[in-house]
Design goal:
The complex is a heterodimer of chains A (213) and B (307). With 213 residues, chain A is an all-alpha fold. Chain A is built from 7 helices and no strands. In chain B, α1 (2-21) crosses α4 and α6 (126-157) packs antiparallel against α8 (174-188). Classes of the chains: A mainly alpha (213), B mainly alpha (307).
């Protein structure tokens, strides 16, 4: 069980780096969507959560994070007619190296944490930390609103991974609520992106830093 | 005394085999490319004909060049051949193996690159300088990935010799190492996403620009050296990834030949399906190779505690 769990969390960590290294917005969206699907499967692999509710939550997570949210983002991108190429504040190579350093650091750091014995030999904690850092890097280092949303999604994926540690204590309904919030959030951001595009003729968030009458 | 003599004899025979078989690699790649494009393509033995033709030709040397222009390719040729002889080949193991020969292997490859780069700068042409600068700047990143891959294998097996670190199955992270080494193979041998061996457009040439002033036998040495280098990286990749390579006897030999064939066909397929990358995207791909090897290292390091 742990082997397949580690394989999936490893793939999720790899997708972080894919999102950090890709220069086009559609591929960042794809990476975030694939990561959402990969971590959606995880609750089924931990312990005995092969119940009907667990299955429903997993299917819901995969459906919303893997298909609905990417669809909303792609539609926002189409309607706002944005430039697909990214102009990063932190370059692709530096952000890849920072992401890799964060991943390595997370693996080393989680070895020093006093974890429960059943969590000490799975990669959930390092994956959660690395995903949160990757999401922050995307939020800080990219200028286009839609790729910042992808950073936000990665951040949420990292928190979800951390939440999986508490899966025995926290009911899955909480996860469902978070999922709903996330969907509504992305929906609203899609509308805001459209408004930004209409008002400023670009989705570059650097234009939003100065005040105008 | 006789043991030493037989070792020397085996070494010579092995280097001869490497030299004789190496030009097949580019032939197979070109055949695959032609087949994908629906052409008949040059014969598989084309590089042998080219080498024979170049060997009979005279040498044109710039008046600005010192003897280093000729000596450089010779040094590179010998260094690459020695590096190839250090590498264990599947079921046959290696002739010469000692603690730390992995370092010698990396340094021999670096010496070869340094010798060719120096030789190409001899003529004082700005164009060669440009090609050399590009080639060396790719090589810096590719070398980092190669060294990380060898460190990973060394950490896995606790051995510092090539035969020790390549003989056992690499275990977890083997896919990462395999992918990283394949990208290094493409970069080190100037294959497509990095450099187009067929291009003769001045703006985009990398390796071809570097060796443009060489002709005749020195150029033949460069071409033959790069063919050996291609086979060398293919053998390294197959050794690092495939456990079946060490079956011994006929089975191991068949697996070796099959693996090398698959790698050459893979290079040909990549070359016909991908366009070369823009220069600014190349460092990203090489960093990716480095990171793949680094995560292989991480997996090897954590591997024992996660099992």
């Amino acid at each position: 069980m742990n082997a397949s769990l580690n394989l999936f969390t490893g793939v999720a960590m790899g997708l972080n780096l894919l999102a950090l290294g890709s220069s086009r917005i559609p591929s960042i969206i794809r990476a975030a969507a694939m990561q959402g699907m990969v971590i959606g499967i995880l609750p089924l692999l931990i312990g005995s959560h092969m119940t009907l509710l667990g299955l429903l939550v997993a299917v819901g997570t995969i459906g919303i994070k893997g298909f609905l949210i990417p669809h909303l983002l792609r539609r926002a991108m189409r309607s706002a007619n944005v430039d697909r190429e990214e102009e990063p504040l932190i370059g692709f190579v530096p952000s890849l190296l920072l992401g890799a350093a964060a991943t390595t650091g997370a693996v080393a750091f989680s070895g020093a944490l006093p974890l429960l014995p059943e969590h000490s030999n799975v990669l959930l904690v390092p994956a959660a930390l690395a995903t949160v850092v990757a999401g922050l890097l995307l939020l800080i280092g990219r200028t286009k609103a839609i790729s910042q949303v992808c950073g936000y999604l990665l951040l949420e994926n990292g928190i979800y991974l951390f939440g999986l540690l508490l899966i025995n204590a926290m009911p899955l309904v909480v996860e469902t609520g978070i999922l709903l919030d996330l969907t509504v959030g992305v929906f609203v951001i899609g509308i805001i992106a459209d408004r930004i595009q209409r008002a400023f003729d670009t989705l570059d968030t650097r234009k939003l830093t100065s005040l105008h009458e | 005394m006789s043991a030493t003599l037989s070792t020397i004899a085996e070494f010579v025979v092995r280097v001869a085999f490497w030299m004789a078989l190496a030009p097949l690699g580019p032939g197979i790649i070109n055949k695959v490319k032609a087949w994908v494009a629906g052409r008949k393509g040059p014969p598989v033995l084309q590089l042998y004909y080219d080498l024979a033709r170049l060997w009979r030709k005279g040498v044109v040397i710039s008046t600005a060049a010192s003897p280093g222009h000729i000596i450089g390719p010779a040094i590179a040729w010998i260094a690459i051949s020695c590096a190839a002889a250090l590498l264990p080949i599947g079921p046959f193991g290696s002739t010469v193996s000692f603690r730390g020969d992995a370092f010698l292997f990396i340094y021999l490859l670096a010496v070869a690159r340094f010798a060719i780069a120096c030789a190409s700068l001899e003529t004082g042409s700005a164009f060669e300088g440009m090609g050399t600068a590009r080639e060396v700047s790719y090589a810096v990143l590719a070398e980092a990935a190669l060294i990380t891959a060898l460190i990973t294998l060394s950490v896995r097996t606790g051995s510092l010799s090539l035969s020790g670190m390549l003989t056992p199955f690499a275990g977890s992270g083997v896919m990462l190492i395999g992918a990283g080494l394949f990208i290094v193979l493409l970069a080190e041998n100037c294959r497509v996403p990095f450099d187009d061996p067929n291009t003769h457009l001045e703006l985009t040439m990398v390796h071809e620009a570097m060796v443009l002033d060489h002709s005749g036998p020195p150029f033949a040495a460069i071409l033959h050296g790069s063919a050996i280098k291609l086979l060398l990286f293919a053998v390294l990749l197959a050794d690092a990834v495939l456990p079946g390579l060490h079956l011994g006897g006929l089975g191991g030999m068949a697996v070796t030949v099959l693996a090398l064939g698959i790698i050459m066909v893979g290079v040909g397929a990549v070359e016909s399906l991908l366009a070369r990358f823009a220069f600014r995207r190349v460092p990203l791909l090489l960093i990716t190779a480095f990171l793949l090897c680094l995560f292989g290292l991480l997996a090897a390091w954590k591997g024992s505690s996660l099992q």
